[in-house]
Amino acid sequence: MSKISSAFTNKAFIAFITCGDPDLATTAACVREAVRNGADLIELGIPFSDPTAEGPVISAANIRALSGGIKTKDVFELVRELRKDVTVPMVFMTYANVVFSYGAEKFIGTCEEVGIDGIILPDLPYEEKEEFLPTCKAHGVDLISLIAPTSENRVEMIAREAEGFIYLVSSLGVTGERSKITTDLAGIVSHIRKVTDVPVAIGFGISTPEQAKEMAGLSDGAIVGSAIVKLVEKYGKDAPKYVGEYVKSMKDAILGK
Amino acid sequence: MTNPKGRFGIHGGQYIPETLMNAVIELEEAYNHYKDDPEFNRELTELFNEYAGRPSRLYFAKKMTEDLGGAKIYLKREDLNHTGAHKVNNVLGQALLAKKMGKTRLIAETGAGQHGVATATAAALFGMECVVFMGEEDTIRQALNVYRMRLLGATVVPVKSGTRTLKDAVSEAMREWTTRISDTHYCLGSVMGPHPFPTIVRDFQAVISKESRAQILEKEGKLPDAVLACVGGGSNAIGSFYHFIGDEGVKLIGCEAAGRGIDTFETAATVNTGKLGIFHGMKSYFCQDEDGQIAPVYSISAGLDYPGVGPEHAHLHDIGRAQYVPVTDEEAVEAFEYLSRTEGIIPAIESAHAVAYARKLAPTMGKDQIIIVTISGRGDKDCAAIARYRGEDIHE
Question: Which domain holds residue A219?
Answer without folding.
Answer: 9-144+207-254
